[in-house]
From TrEMBL:
<dbReference type="Pfam" id="PF05656">
    <property type="entry name" value="DUF805"/>
</dbReference>
<keyword id="KW-1133">Transmembrane helix</keyword>
<feature type="domain" description="Rhodanese">
    <location>
        <begin position="49"/>
        <end position="71"/>
    </location>
</feature>
<dbReference type="InterPro" id="IPR001763">
    <property type="entry name" value="Rhodanese-like_dom"/>
</dbReference>
<feature type="transmembrane region" description="Helical">
    <location>
        <begin position="26"/>
        <end position="48"/>
    </location>
</feature>
<dbReference type="GO" id="GO:0005886">
    <property type="term" value="C:plasma membrane"/>
</dbReference>
<keyword id="KW-0812">Transmembrane</keyword>
<feature type="transmembrane region" description="Helical">
    <location>
        <begin position="68"/>
        <end position="86"/>
    </location>
</feature>
<dbReference type="InterPro" id="IPR008523">
    <property type="entry name" value="DUF805"/>
</dbReference>
<feature type="transmembrane region" description="Helical">
    <location>
        <begin position="98"/>
        <end position="117"/>
    </location>
</feature>
<protein>
    <submittedName>
        <fullName>Uncharacterized membrane protein YhaH, DUF805 family</fullName>
    </submittedName>
</protein>
<keyword id="KW-0472">Membrane</keyword>
Length: 139
């Protein structure tokens, strides 16, 4: 799965909390969200003057204060991001409710990161068929 197909899949299934999402779909969508947020924040700084660029020792520092474009994009992506995260947890055999572990400071985020980087469970599990098409062929 590439960036374009992952974004299309996530936006098409923006409110689908059933099924499974492979690692590639999840991480490509995270990258898409990050890149678009940076581009929008840069536009807001350049066009609207929201944010600031300052000179520091050895370079420049940029700070964005979250303008209207970034806020609207983030709000539009809440449901698709939540849905792909739940489907990713399903793919490793965990309930979507495990997302609430993230509310535990530091430890919760690390546990979720561990789940997100795990390989997909081979074959079907209680959440559906494998999004990767089943087990790999035998040599």
């Amino acid at each position: 799965m590439n960036l374009i197909s992952a974004v299309k899949t996530c936006l098409r299934n923006y409110a689908t909390f059933r099924g499974r999402a492979p690692r590639s779909e999840f991480w490509w969508f995270i990258l898409f969200f990050f890149l678009v947020s940076v581009v929008l924040a840069t536009i807001e700084t350049a066009v609207f003057g929201i944010g600031e660029v300052s000179h520091v020792d050895g370079g420049y520092e940029w700070q964005s204060n979250g303008g209207p474009l970034t806020v609207l994009f983030s709000l539009a992506m809440v449901l698709p991001m939540l849905a792909v995260t739940v489907r990713r947890l399903h793919d490793v055999g965990k309930s979507g409710w495990f997302i609430l572990i993230g509310l535990i400071p530091l430890i919760g985020g690390l546990v979720l990161l561990f789940f997100y980087v795990q390989p997909s469970q081979q074959g079907p599990n209680q959440f559906g068929a494998s999004p990767n098409g089943g087990p790999p062929p035998l040599p």
